[in-house]
Amino acid sequence: MALFSDIKTFFDLKNRLCGFVILCIFSSFSLNAAPILILGDSLSASYGMPENEGWVQLLRAKMPEHTLINGSVSGETSAGGLRRLPALLESTQPKVLLVELGGNDGLRGFPPKQLKTNLSNIIKLAKDQQVTILLSEIMVPPNYGPRYAAQIANVYKELAQEHNITLMPFFMETIVIDSTLMQRDGIHPNAAAQPQIADFMLPWFLQAL
């Protein structure tokens, strides 16, 4: 009886161990297969350079186990991103969404209230699909005046608090002051800046995953 008991215990432990290994494999596969969707404007759409030189493509090389889907469009506003998001969520089913929108709203002088409404609706759509959200801060050029710039900045802080999501610092903050990293228009980062942006983004995405 003792021998039988030992054999039975052995196989019970073996079966449990196999089950644990299988669970770990599937858990790892599920994590590694998790798509990341980037909903942005020209700052994320490789404006002014080949797509393979942009920070999204460089980040793909740093995260080969994950799928990065670049849903960014040059000139995109928060309203445009909101219109496109439902189809993107359905087709890509992301685990993480980076929202990098609002720069063009600011450059066009759109009301901060309108920007906040659009971004809030974007966040709600993603949350309804159980998507983890990274919201990138956006800053407008100083010639728009300190009052308007402060109102735009407050939109992102308020959204992060109200929706309990991660607010990511504006990745252009240290780049825009270095002319060697900027294109001639003084608005868009050049190819030399892209590795720096990819390095900035990496820990935020890993944390979100």
TrEMBL record:
Q: Which Gene3D superfamilies does the record cross-reference, listed alphabetically?
A: SGNH hydrolase
Q: Which residues form a coiled coil?
A: none
Alphabetized InterPro entries for the sequence: Ester_Hydrolysis_Enzymes (IPR051532), SGNH_hydro (IPR013830), SGNH_hydro_sf (IPR036514)
Which positions fall inside the SGNH hydrolase-type esterase domain?
A: 38-193
Would you say which domain of life the source belongs to?
A: Bacteria
Q: Which Pfam families match?
A: Lipase_GDSL_2
Q: What is this protein called?
A: Arylesterase
Q: Which organism is it from?
A: Shewanella youngdeokensis
Give the source lineage, highest ranks first. Answer: Bacteria, Pseudomonadati, Pseudomonadota, Gammaproteobacteria, Alteromonadales
